[in-house]
Each structure stands twice: as structure tokens, then as C-alpha cells.
Amino acid sequence: MKDNKKVTITTETTWKEITPGGIVYEAGNAHNYKTGEWRSMRPIWHSEKCKQCLLCFPVCPDSSILVEDGKVVGIDYDHCKGCGVCVNVCPFNVFDFVKEE
Amino acid sequence: MAIRERLSGNEAVATAMKQINPDVVAAFPITPSTEVPQYFSQFVANGSVDTEFVAVESEHSAMSACVGASAAGARVMTATSANGLALMWEILYIAASSRLPIVMPVINRALSGPINIHNDHSDSMGARDSGWIQLYSEDNQEAYDNIIQAIRIAEHKDVRLPVMVCMDGFIVSHSVENIELLETEKVKEFVGEYDPGLDTLLNPEQPVAMGPLDLPPHYFEHKRQQAEAMKNAKEVILEIAKEFEALTGRKYGLFEEYKMEDAEVAIVVLNSTAGTAKEVVDELREKGVKAGLVKIRVFRPFPVEELREALKHVKAVAVMDKADSFSAAGGPVFVETRAALYDAETRPVMISYIYGLGGRDVKTDDIMKVYEDLLEIVKTGEVKSVYNYLGVRE
Questions:
Q1: Residue A4 above 80 pLDDT?
Q2: What is the residue range of A23's domain?
Q3: Considering the entire predicted model, what is its pTM?
Q4: Which chain B residues have any C-beta within 8 angstroms of a chain A C-beta?
Q5: Using the beta-carbon criterion (under 8 Å), do A24 and B222 form an inter-chain contact?
Q6: What CA–CA distance (Å, rounded) separates B155 from A38?
Q7: In terms of CATH, what superfamily is B3-248?
Q8: Does domain B255-390 have CATH number 3.40.50.920?
Q9: What own/partner pairs with CB < 8 Å and gap ≥ 24 does A64-71 have?
Q10: Are A40 and A79 found together in one domain?
Q11: Structure ipTM
């Protein structure tokens, strides 16, 4: 068991490398956990239809609506679980919601 | 010079705790372990230790407080028995999987029901798969010695697991016997200053989170790592025993072999019954009967290879369990000991005796009956019954 072992835990990490007792050394490491794999439905955002009302951004439970300079620029599919809240809240039907293949 | 004293098992354990002077003790009283936190709180009150004593409202809270304190980086101890241990159950697993080196005397008592406060091993045997190291103690001297060694075992960098030090309730806990204590300075020197490393909750240099959610991609790796620590413990226990022997002259192993060199019949036993059984072995030896005894000290990790070596040349072995696992196929020590012999080329006939439940007295006559059964098996080559209950009214 080593101290100060900053490891990024992935699905490749072996039992010899994993942190003892599941200790987490860095804040915000949930970012490294790709929950996008859980998705069965995929929201697709169409930039040309988007009015940039930003209603989707605060309701996303996984912070997966990507915003740059105050504008929606896309979806973080590494973390989007496909809950469809963004699809539902959008007043302009910007999103398609399709089965994940 | 060692200190000669007369102490009960509970006093011996509390004295060891005083000499260790842990940072935190969180405990709740339960018969027959009550005296341990009782004596210890007196040591706190009169200033002979500087431990933070946490008087909790249940054993679930006691073990939870121990987990928190240990995670924070403190050296932590507690004590319990029977239903108290049962109430700690879920937290026992958390302490072990979080790799927290907590040391806990378990004063063995029958687990309810029916409600009973007397000695058997149903409490600690139930916790055998919780991931704690388990040391068993024949008398107050061994309990004292095991507690001191347990601190080193638990905190060893290759182990980092909690340790239960078990001894028989009332039979040992409340019986006053001669004991040889170490001077406090020698105990302090032996256990050393606790170095929890950098991975503690109170280390501002390196903030960490402990006990996180661990889903299917990672949980298995953590359990495998925990299993390795238990495997490492065997070597560490022997190393520390050697160091302890150099200090005290008292020798400890994974188990004790009593007159086993040429034994043809033997019993395997834990805790205080070993003392009773040694009397019987001596008596039989005087009559020229080749009887021996194996007293298991370390039940977790289980000394599989070593027990196989010790028992493979014996003709018939009886394993004594002071707990029933209700498998309808013998007690837990029997099952594991018999499994350990499976890979031996020659192996003894092995039979199981469940005995002494709820504090039923075990006398030399009872043990003699077991050896007589074994000798009959050797003579006739016939096993009438593998799974037996000793001392119950038929």
C-alpha cells in the first residue's frame, strides 16, 4: 500500500494498482467515470434550430449540456445518461431523442 | 524485569489498552466485556491515559465512531461481546474493507437466542468472514500478549486490517490468574508511535475521500486487494510473534502443538478448553497413549498448509467447535480443518464435536470421552458418527 498514490481509476486498473479501500485522492474525479455507457436513449441537439434559451442547461442532472461563452455548443456523450430531461424541457423541439445503437 | 500480577482476563485486556494508550476508544458495555470499557474509562478519568473516550449509545455507533476516528488517522480500540458484536455487523465489514487497523477484544459469549450471557464462540465465529483478523487466547496471559501484538499486526503496511482478539467470557474474562505484564515503557516501545501514513481524513496536505460508492467496475478489485492483505497477515503475525518472543520469552505461532510429535490421536480446539484438554493429554500420555492437541491461535487468516502438515500423520482427529454453524454438517472449525487436510496424501479420520454451547461446562471427563472415541476409531477402523454433540442431554 503506497501513500500519495494519485491514480486515475479506469476499467483497466488491476487490484494491485487500485487505491486501498477505494480512497479518492482528487476532487471531481467522477469526471473520469464514463457514465455515458449506461445510455439507452440518445438526445441529438440541432444547432440550427436552437434559440439559445438555455433552459436545457440547468436541468441536466449530469452537467452534460456543453456551454461555451454563454451558448450551448453540444452534448457531453461521455457522461450523458440519456434521461431525456433536456428533450422534454426544450420549448422549440430542438432535440431528437433516438434509440442508442 | 517483567511485572508479576494477578488479574482477570478483562483486567489484563484493559491493562494492555492502558499501556498502549490509544488515541480513541469508543465502546458500549455488554456482558461479559463490560469491565473492559469500565476499567478503561477509569484510566481516562484518573489521567493515566490521554485517550479520547467516546461513550456511545450502541455498538453500531461504537464501531462507527471507531471507523471515523481510524479514518481520521487515530490509533483506535474498542471491546465487545455477543449481541454487541452482532449489532456492529455491517460496520465490521466497512472497517475491514476501508483497511482501518482497529483492535478489538471480543469476550466470547453465546449469541442470542435463546438469551444467554455465558461463553461459547457463536459471536466471533459468525463474524469470521467480515474481513477481520481473528486471534484466539487460551488464558489472560495470552489475551494480554495478543492485544499488544494485534496493534502491530493491524497497523503493518502489508496488512492494514482490523483485528479481533478473542477470549472466553467469564471462564477467562472474570477469572483471576497469575500474569506477567510488561513494563509500560516496553509496551510503548514495542507498539511504537502509530504512523497512519498520508491517507487520513485529517491530513490537510493531502485531502482524501474515504468509503466511496464502488460499483461493479471496481468493487471486485478492492475485495481482491483486501484478500491479499489477509494472505500477507500470516507472515506478519509470525514476524511480530518472533519479536515478541525476543522481548518476553513467550512463544506464539499460528497454532500451538501440544505433544503432537508422535501423536496418533489429536483434538483441535480454540481458547480456554485447550487448558482443560492439555490435562487430559497429560493423563493419557502417562498411560502410554499417544495423544496430542492443536490449539488454533490464528483463525483468520486460516493456517491451511501449516495445519495440514501438523495433522496429516495423525490417525484420528476430533475438531471441537464451541459454535454450531447450522450447516447440518459440523461446526466452522471442523469444516475448515477438514478441508485443509483434503490435499494431503495421507490424512486422518476426522470427526466433529460441537460442545459447551451457552456456557455448558466442559470437564476433563468430557474431553476424555472424545479421546476414547478417537482411540476406538483407530482400533476398529470404524467411524460410527462424524457429526457429534458433546455434553448435551440425549
A1: no
A2: 1-33
A3: 0.92
A4: 97-100, 157-158, 160, 197-199, 206-212, 214, 217-218, 220-222, 224-225, 228
A5: no
A6: 40
A7: Thiamin diphosphate (ThDP)-binding fold, Pyr/PP domains (3.40.50.970)
A8: yes
A9: none
A10: yes
A11: 0.87
